[in-house]
């Protein structure tokens, strides 16, 4: 007798261990941004050993990397076999998403990490063939940063200078995946999206320590955007998610006068105590900050804590989960008091970091608000 | 002391009970087709009573309906509050998806069912404002069926008659949700999509018994398409999913000469024994077939079983899960032998009905194949 194969499903023990991550894996339904399908998760988690579910361990995420790399490679094979532009595009989008999850929380080998991140980039750019999305690449020699200006064909064809939103990565997001997904709401509203990668962000993650003092990068980017005839440099907004939300608060404080509004998705003025960071976050911060394995980053966290200071020269919106264990809500309450009517705080009582169960509705409402603020006042 | 609210998550007991359904809930990442976000599922399943998880019961699906109706209403409220076309479109897409899951497996009250299905329709059509998708509605007075021809603006602007794929619903799918999602792969490849609703399908579900002998409807639709200058009536394909895949096999046999190829996603020549149908399927079939509660549909199933007969006048592709408990694979093996080189059978050993973990890759490959078959031979 031959054995009947078992039905493919996300195993219950994996859902139990990783349930917190599912809203991140699914993120936002998107048009250009790579996104996995449920079956990709099922295939990646199927047969995962039950005895190695320590999410703080390198071992878990190394196995995870192998499994998502397999998914990615099955998508690149699908792309190669496809005889249509649309087929290759969709398959490469699947590959880009799977490569992102492959490198997610993997920090063992910088070369492997960077190769995976490069593959996200290559697959994503390949997936844009045949779409109406146009990517204009630029670099910021002063600070070593890079950026993309994203517009659709129809937006460029209008010939008018466009309002724009500048979007910042968090610590472990991919420019092509989460930041691209966030950008789509703006593109749909006729707003150009500027995706930048400062030191330690995107492809630069693990190459140079992430720059928490990101203001010089944003200042250089602003200089550049002012010389760009396609962009209406007096109609700019800034938004960031997670650590990018923290950066958004810094930008609001230091460069607020250049932006009509600033949005902070899930960041806060202070990171939680390093010692108490759950899951893989200690190593995540160590990797991004270029610290040694085992290093205590509390002194660095202390330096980075933002004193609210006087209210910024722009309107700021923060959206936060009351159960956030990375940027505790308390810091935002203090900042909200200090910044008074220049700051709005939206707190979701049952949400954790970046309120991912609600991302579809809060990004929609936020994009509507930003659209209103960026309207042509001429 | 106030109680700390619990973090919102899909509860483990709900994942355990409903895990089989998650690939259906997430289906295909789509651009126009309504699709839920993970957080919608979390909100719908949060706090679901642990003592009523009998998926064969009306009680479970009635509660399920209430919860998804709440989700849908939160999306319609979001649409009303939105000040942008893009915001309303995205919110209405969310509402349409949630209304579909609300009516899913709910059969208690035909009026409620039909109202929910009408809302899917209204929200979906509303969500197309500002997109480039154009819907041309038509009706088939002879058989009481209706259809949509879907094209993008760019496809219509070409002025050339377009190849087209005719897509059929299954028993409990929604034209606007699953069938629309399947249509997108064709639109991306420059192929018009014709979505029809025969008696008992789509908005007609529960109004008239589903017509298993769907060939006269398809024949009337073919007549109509031949008079449509925008459609190249000699470049047609037919595809259906689940019960629509069964219908596709009938169409291949009776009307094969009108289609360059026919695709059967997860259907088969014979339905499993009525007595042994799992979960809510007995009531699902009873509702669609207009049978009394408690009725035994085995005699009807016996009538409907397709004898393969001689090979059809067209090329047929069937994609099936070896663990399918609705259309058992054995029937397809018989048909595959009988139809010989006019039939290709792709069997996925670890997949159940409609192989939903693999839907992204098999729909991509199938759309590529259909594109090749529909190429202009002139």
TrEMBL record, chains A, B:
Gene3D superfamilies: alpha/beta hydrolase
Source organism phylogeny: Bacteria, Bacillati, Actinomycetota, Actinomycetes, Kitasatosporales
Molecular function, one GO term: hydrolase activity
Family: Belongs to the AB hydrolase superfamily.
UniProt organism field: Streptomyces canus
Protein name according to UniProt: Dienelactone hydrolase
Sorted UniProt keywords: Hydrolase
């Amino acid at each position: 007798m031959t054995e009947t194969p078992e039905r493919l499903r996300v195993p219950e023990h994996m859902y139990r261990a990783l349930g917190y991550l599912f809203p991140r894996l699914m993120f936002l339904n998107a048009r250009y941004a790579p996104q996995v399908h449920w079956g990709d998760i099922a295939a990646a988690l199927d047969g995962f050993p039950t005895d190695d579910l320590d999410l703080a361990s390198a071992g878990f995420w190394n196995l995870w990397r192998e499994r998502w790399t397999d998914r990615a490679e099955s998508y690149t094979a699908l792309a190669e076999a496809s005889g249509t532009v649309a087929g290759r595009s969709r398959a490469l989008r699947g590959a880009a998403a799977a490569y992102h999850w492959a490198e997610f929380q993997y920090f063992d080998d910088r070369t492997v990490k960077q190769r995976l991140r490069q593959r996200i980039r290559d697959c994503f750019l390949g997936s844009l063939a045949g779409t109406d999305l146009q990517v204009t690449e630029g670099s910021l020699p002063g600070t070593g940063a890079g950026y993309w200006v994203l517009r659709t064909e129809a937006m460029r064809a209008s010939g008018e200078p466009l309002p724009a939103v500048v979007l910042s990565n968090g610590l472990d997001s991919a420019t092509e995946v989460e930041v691209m997904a966030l950008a789509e709401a703006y593109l749909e509203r006729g707003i150009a999206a500027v995706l930048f990668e400062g030191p330690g962000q995107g492809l630069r993650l693990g190459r140079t320590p992430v720059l928490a003092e990101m203001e010089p990068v944003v200042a250089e980017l602003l200089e550049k955007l002012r010389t760009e005839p396609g962009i209406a440099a007096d109609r700019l907004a800034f938004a960031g998610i997670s650590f990018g939300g923290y950066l958004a608060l810094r930008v609001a404080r230091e460069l607020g006068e250049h932006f009509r509004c600033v949005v902070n998705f899930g960041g806060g003025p202070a990171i939680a105590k390093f010692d108490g960071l759950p899951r893989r976050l200690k190593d995540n911060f160590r990797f991004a900050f270029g610290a040694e394995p085992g290093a205590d980053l509390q002194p660095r966290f202390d330096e980075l804590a933002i004193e609210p200071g006087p209210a910024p020269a722009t309107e700021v919106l923060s959206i936060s989960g009351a159960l956030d264990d990375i940027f505790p809500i308390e810091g935002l309450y203090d900042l909200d008091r200090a910044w008074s009517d220049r700051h709005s705080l939206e707190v979701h009582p049952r949400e954790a970091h970046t309120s991912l169960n609600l991302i579809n509705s809060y990004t929609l409402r936020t994009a509507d608000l930003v659209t209103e603020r960026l309207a042509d006042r001429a």
